[in-house]
Amino acid sequence: MNLGMLIEPNLLFYVINTSMQRNLNEEVVIIGGGPAGYKCAIELKKISPSLKLSLIEKQKLGGTCLHSGCIPSKLLHSVKNLSEFPTLLQKNQVILEKAIQSEMKNYGVNIITGTASIDTANQMVIVDMQTKINYSQLIIATGSKPKKIAQFPNSISSDDFFNIDKLKQGLADSFTIIGGGYIGIELASMLAKHGKKVQIFEAQKQILSFLDHDIQNRLLQELTRQGISIYTDVNNLANISINQQDTIISAIGRETQLPEGIDKNNLPSNIHIIGDASEKFRLAHYAYMQARQLAHKLLDQNFKFREDLIPLVVFSHPELASLGITENSAREIYQDSEIKTIMINWASNAKARIIGAERGFTKLVYLKSSGRILGAHLIGQSATDLISVMIPILQQDLSLEDMKTWIFPHPTLGEIFAI
Q1: Looking at residue 68, what is its pLDDT?
Q2: Fewest Cβ atoms closer than 10 Å to its Cβ: which of 210, 298, 316, 327?
Q3: What angle do CA 103, 105, 109 make, to 5 degrees?
Q4: What residues contact 230, with CB distance under 8 A and at least 6 apart?
Q5: By CB neighbour count within 10 A (0-12 exposed, 13-18 middle, 19+ buried), where does 283 fall?
Q6: CA 80 – CA 75 distance, rounded (Å)
Q7: How many CB atoms lie within 10 A of CB 261?
Q8: What average pLDDT does this structure show over 229-233?
């Protein structure tokens, strides 16, 4: 999540000018100031205020999430006038970065700006080849970077797309997006919303293949209604047709970036990798929980969360949200006759009709014998907010009968769960 912390190659082999060194006592060191890094720093200081802790960030606090991922894409999702987007984005980024910095300073986190290299033999981090910090525990939160497409060397990544200077120059009128995952679908629907011509090429048989099949089908209908051309099962990019004036966006995923000399398969017990660099879920909210869990572990406190209940949200038009398992997955895990579903059409929800969200729907997957809910899948306006209602339900293994006793205010979108 933090692209700013890519360690320069061969830094481990530079000779350090000892006259410029500043030595600090042994402490916990975090490399990377994105969601995983800054959250872990704050959690550690919350639990142990006297802990010596330094966080090293090469560029700006907030990582990819703030500067070229979560925040820019969600702002583009909501902005009405595209010409205002660069100014609004820059303003929000400055405010949010200052908020992160302020919170860390309030907890006493030592923030160091610079490029870090690691001397694992001496348990030392060297910043800008002059400041040496001995560590007792080292936390690596150096994030990920966009994968490149060799066939299209002039393509841009989502990081490039959200570059403020480029945004101020204006966007092209037509786009070709390679990849039908999170990034590709979000950008495609946002650009189409602003009148841009968009086509998507996806190697798999479906876009967003992790979604429940009913949500996938409705999304495909909605994107097609918006004028987006979608081509799936495309395995040979050499044969695709691209207009010469198109801006090509590479959205084929991201890859981990780790400091020079770090082997993730052979880590010492006092070196930890979290966030995007851990190669698990590349989601900011997952990174927060990873960071919190590690902070508690390092200070000998119990803290667990369920990795099978990570909310998946896509800020497309319409929004998508998923929690738990899909219908198909449920039928693979349990007996087919045990799986039931409920489809809740938003057309009968008063608030949905008022705000023009009546095409949305909710799908609940549950066990016939107990009524226990296994999965919740939503498509429609504010689906990314509404999925939060289902988190405690699935975490506590509640049933449809439990939900029937709950009172929801009227008229609200929340009433879609008043089954």
Answers
A1: 94
A2: 210
A3: 110
A4: 180, 199, 200, 202, 207, 220, 223, 224
A5: buried
A6: 10
A7: 16
A8: 96
